[in-house]
């Protein structure tokens, strides 16, 4: 009877203790192509920032580094409130398009990890990504006026080491002009 009691009550406790002793399973980030919903989100954000830039600044958004000055003007003139995260992220989409236009190895992807689902610019050949959608909004949310050109260049140089080497040992050089 004592052995039976031991099996009934102690064995499950030992099994539970063993389960807790196992190291936690890490969730490997997944990078995948944009869904229709993701594409639609990015396009909506592009239209929103283009409309704001056209109406308030009188400048188009082209998806190139020429947009950096327009984005900076929007920030400096405080045309987007500190609490408007969605519109701040629209600025980030425009920044991402400029980054992608500068570096052909980058493309919009979905990056998913244990924290959730993000739209990111990822290097095609490796699993390294930039998150331009939030590069500006996280700073603006706390009342900062980020330097768009500086963030643009820092992002390019940050991802450059993850990109395939250039032919003939060339070095990637980026400029805001």
3D architecture notes:
It is a single chain. With 177 residues, the protein is of the alpha+beta class. The chain has helices at 2-21, 36-57, 67-76, 85-102, 132-135, 137-141, 148-160; strands at 30-32, 106-113, 116-123, 129-130. Helix 2 packs across helix 3 (67-76) and helix 2 (36-57) crosses helix 4.
Order of helices and strands: HEHHHEEEHHH
Poorly predicted regions are 4-23
Any idea what the shape is? Answer: globular
| Major sheet | 4 strands, antiparallel
Helix content: 40-55%
Keywords:
177 residues; alpha+beta; 4-stranded antiparallel β-sheet; 7 helices
A few lines on this structure:
The protein is of the alpha+beta class and 177 residues long. The protein has helices spanning 2-21, 36-57, 67-76, 85-102, 132-135, 137-141, 148-160, and strands spanning 30-32, 106-113, 116-123, 129-130.
Question: What does the secondary structure layout of this molecule look like, with pairings?
Answer:
Blueprint: H1 2-21, E1 30-32, H2 36-57, H3 67-76, H4 85-102, E2 106-113, E3 116-123, E4 129-130, H5 132-135, H6 137-141, H7 148-160
Antiparallel strand pairs: 1-2, 2-3, 3-4
Helix pairs in contact: 2-3, 2-4
């Amino acid at each position: 009877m004592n052995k039976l009691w031991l099996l009934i009550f102690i064995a499950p406790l030992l099994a539970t203790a063993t389960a807790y002793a196992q190291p936690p399973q890490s969730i490997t980030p997944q990078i995948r192509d944009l869904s229709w919903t993701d594409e639609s989100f990015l396009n909506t954000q592009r239209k929103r920032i283009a409309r704001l830039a056209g109406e308030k600044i009188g400048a188009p958004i082209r998806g190139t580094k020429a947009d950096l000055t327009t984005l900076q003007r929007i920030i400096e003139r405080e045309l987007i409130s500190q609490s408007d995260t969605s519109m701040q992220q629209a600025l980030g989409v425009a920044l991402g398009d400029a980054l992608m236009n500068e570096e052909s190895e980058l493309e919009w992807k979905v990056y998913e990890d244990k924290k959730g689902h993000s739209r990111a610019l990822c290097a095609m050949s490796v699993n390294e990504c930039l998150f331009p959608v939030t590069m500006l909004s996280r700073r603006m949310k706390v009342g900062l006026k980020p330097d768009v050109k500086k963030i643009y260049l820092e992002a390019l140089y940050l991802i450059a080491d993850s990109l395939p080497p250039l032919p003939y040992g060339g070095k990637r050089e980026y400029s805001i002009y």
